[in-house]
Amino acid sequence: MPLPRSVARFNRTVTNHVTRPMARHLPGFGVVVHVGRKSGRQYRTPVNVFTRAGGWRFALTYGEADWVRNVLEAGGGRLESRGRVARFANPVLVEDASLRHFPFAVRWILRRIDVDQVLVVDEA
């Protein structure tokens, strides 16, 4: 089972505010800029991001979180990572129990918390 919703709520109200300024610049991290499905408001969510040919992968440690639903419904968003801003499109939610596209240490951690959902996006 992915991390409990209580951890997600804590991260949204506390941790995200602390990590957001740094996440845009650190390797392996980024900020997903997305628009709320109902509110139309712009949100900035710090995430772990992994490059792939032509796009990125995000391991969904909380399952299908609000930011994931927003990106899926909008058909894309923006990623701020390592001082660069890029648009992404074609988000696809996939089940990947092997997690073979992630580095070994990350794969080990994700398996310990039973994460197998991955959001795959293309650079627009």
Tell me what you see in this structure.
This protein has 124 residues and is of the alpha+beta class. Helix content is 30%, strand content 38%. The chain contains 3 helices and 7 strands; from the N terminus they run αββββαββαβ. It has a 7-stranded antiparallel β-sheet. β5 and β6 form a beta hairpin. The chain is globular, with a radius of gyration of 14 Å. The mean pLDDT is 89.
- Percent helix range: 25-40%
**Number of distinct helices:** 3
Task: Tell me what portion of residues adopts beta-strand conformation.
Answer: 35-45%
Structural class: alpha+beta
What is the chain-wise order of helices and strands?
A: HEEEEHEEHE
3D shape: globular
Largest sheet: 7 strands, antiparallel
Find the count of extended strands (DSSP E, 2+ residues). Answer: 7
Uncertain stretches of 5 or more adjacent residues = none
Distance between the termini: 32 Å
Q: Report the average pLDDT across residues.
A: 89
Give the spatial strand order of the biggest sheet. 2-1-5-6-7-4-3
**Radius of gyration from the CA trace?**
14 Å
Brief synopsis:
The protein has three helices and seven strands; from the N terminus they run αββββαββαβ. The chain has helices spanning 5-23, 66-74, 104-112; strands spanning 29-35, 42-48, 50-52, 55-59, 76-81, 84-95, 117-123.
Topology readout:
Elements: H1 5-23, E1 29-35, E2 42-48, E3 50-52, E4 55-59, H2 66-74, E5 76-81, E6 84-95, H3 104-112, E7 117-123
Antiparallel strand pairs: 1-2, 1-5, 3-4, 4-7, 5-6, 6-7
